[in-house]
Amino acid sequence: MPKAELHLHIEGTFEPELMFEIAKRNDIQIPFKSVEEIQKAYNFDCLQNFLDIYYQGAGVLIYENDFYDLTYSYLEKCAQQNVLHTEIMFDPQTHTQRGINFEIVINGISKACDDAEIKLGVSSLLIMSYLRHLPEESAFTTLEQSLPFKDKIKAIGLDSSEKGNPPSKFKNVFKASVKEGYIPLAHAGEEGDANYVWEAIDILKIKRIDHGNNSLQDPKLIQEIIDRDVALTVCPLSNTSLQVVSDLKDHPLKKMMDLGLKVTVNSDDPAYFGGQLNQNYIEIQKALQLSKKDLYELAKNSFKYSLLEGTSKQKYLKILEDYYRNSS
Ligand code: HPA
Ligand code: ZN
Question: Residue 238 pLDDT more than 80?
């Protein structure tokens, strides 16, 4: 099925094989001897536990071509899965904090996106995500660094350790980022409670909620999200990997749809959570017995709530509609 991916961290697409290859060519030691050892370590009990390993993996990325290879390899997977459009998050601070220049990161990623659009027919745009475990000043520095590359970045996001780092901590930098023309998005309600989602929509004025699972704790919040027509980028296999949801059969995705929330399916960090986007669709379909119409709705939302504008959004919706009509 033609679809878009709206919640994807490029650092989370780092497959063990590529990690070994880049570590070797950059002469960097990683604490794993084999792909099997890496896979064994990918056994998480919470978000923080995952993040520790995720930041460690990103540490082998040094040169522009490392960021290029990482991104292009993900975009090839998009092409194989009929993902026509993707909105890619990247965490500049994960790299600038270890002495890698902002421009190395953005140039490597955006060149791969440009090439993939031509060679693979996959369109993409970039979401610069601030790390919420760091102080707001560090996000301000990142905003400054991004300005010469403003034309390559569509939106800002907020990720990393949620609990104890509420959206309100980033009120000023979000305001300044919006002033620069970036669209505000944020992770909220993954491990944080419904109050985090309230803050994200009221204080950061976000246009899309990444995860948003814990919105279900508060009926007033659910109604507010529906009224504002804000979509949730839900990540089924991420939720079970990080034990946000104990079993896919208990996943709230269908309940969210039935309540009238606008939901999309996404892979989040596919190299770490055991499945690319198609696998997320397949497994959640099985677990919740989703109908063909439900799947169509999810794919439709992925284009409708993308950050694409005007004709390109309409073009994709038409491709999906034609596909659905011909397959049912
Ligand atoms: N949550 C928060 N931060 C992240 C995630 C996530 O699922 N993936 C990568 N950074
Ligand atoms: Zn995420």
Answer: yes
Cβ of 160 closer than 6 Å to ligand 1, yes or no, is: yes
Ligand 1 within 6 A of 47 CB? yes
Q: Is 159 in the pocket of ligand 1 (CB under 6 A)?
A: yes
Separation of 115 CA from ligand 2 center, angstroms?
25
pLDDT at 28: 95
Q: Which ligand is nearest to the CA of 241?
A: 1
* Ligand 1 atom closest to the CA of 211, numbered from 1: 7
* Total Cβ atoms within 10 A of residue 183: 17
Task: Please return the burial class of 79, using the count of CB atoms within 10 Å of its CB with bins 0-12, 13-18 and 19+.
Answer: middle
CB 193 within 8 A of CB 217: yes
Q: How far is the CA of 289 from the centre of ligand 1 (A)?
A: 27
Residue 39: the pLDDT is 86
Torsion of CA 24, 112, 57, 39, to 10 degrees: -90
Question: Quick one: which of 195, 126, 124, 111 has its CA closest to 156?
Answer: 126
Condensed to tens digits (0 to 9), the pLDDT of residues 109-134 reads 999 999 999 999 999 999 999 999 99
Neighbours of 96 (CB within 10 A): 17
Predicted confidence at residue 310, as pLDDT, reads: 87
96/102 Cα distance (integer angstroms):
6
Is the model's pLDDT at 147 over the cut of 90?
Answer: yes
**Is 190 marked active-site?**
yes
For atom 7 of ligand 1, the residue with the nearest CA is 268
Secondary structure (3-state) at 204: coil
- Entry pTM: 0.98
Atom of ligand 1 nearest to the CA of 54: 9
Domains of the chain in sequence order: 3-327 (3.20.20.140)
Average pLDDT over residues 74-79: 98
